[in-house]
Amino acid sequence: MKKILLYSGLALSMAAMVSGCKKDDDNNNPDPTPTNPYYFNFKANGTAYNFSSATPQYISSDENVIGGFQETSFLTYPSISLSFKYDHHPTESEVLSLAGNTYHFDGSYPNPYMEFDGGSTNGSEQYYTSDTTTNNLSVKVNSISYVKTDTTIFNIVDVYVINGTCNAFLQPYQTISTYPFINVTEGSFNFLISRVK
């Protein structure tokens, strides 16, 4: 009888130890589907677009340009790009100094530049910003911060996340375009851009 009580007591003690050491799966595991923080939302001639691809598309072939593309999903159309053109290869400190400033499409450096591609194979849905002195057409950079260094097919690049707002006037690349222009309003973005190292 003592052996039965001893074994029963040992079994209860072991069960208590095992259950006391068990991980609480509900509290310790991260969310299996984390949310994507990257987006570029805007209206084009009144039509709302919400681009939120989690896969970055860098502008990495020109060392005098920093920028990137945002899409609805990886390598699909439509897409929009935002870049800043310099008359030289910008340093990291120059890139970080974009934060807190508003840039106009007036041809001065750093010059903001936007492109919209609706995906038509004949180029009728490709638009780009034209320089203008209109003050309400601009890119305001709220923040920019370094994320990582990455390798592309062209170059090694430093990658930054840029956050801000924009309004722009885009003209067509070709005269056969669907619309004579695109008026981009209520733009807000938080996405990845790159600078050639």
From TrEMBL:
Keywords: Signal
Residues in the signal sequence: 1-18
Domain of life: Bacteria
Protein name according to UniProt: Uncharacterized protein
Native species: Taibaiella lutea
Lineage: Bacteria, Pseudomonadati, Bacteroidota, Chitinophagia, Chitinophagales
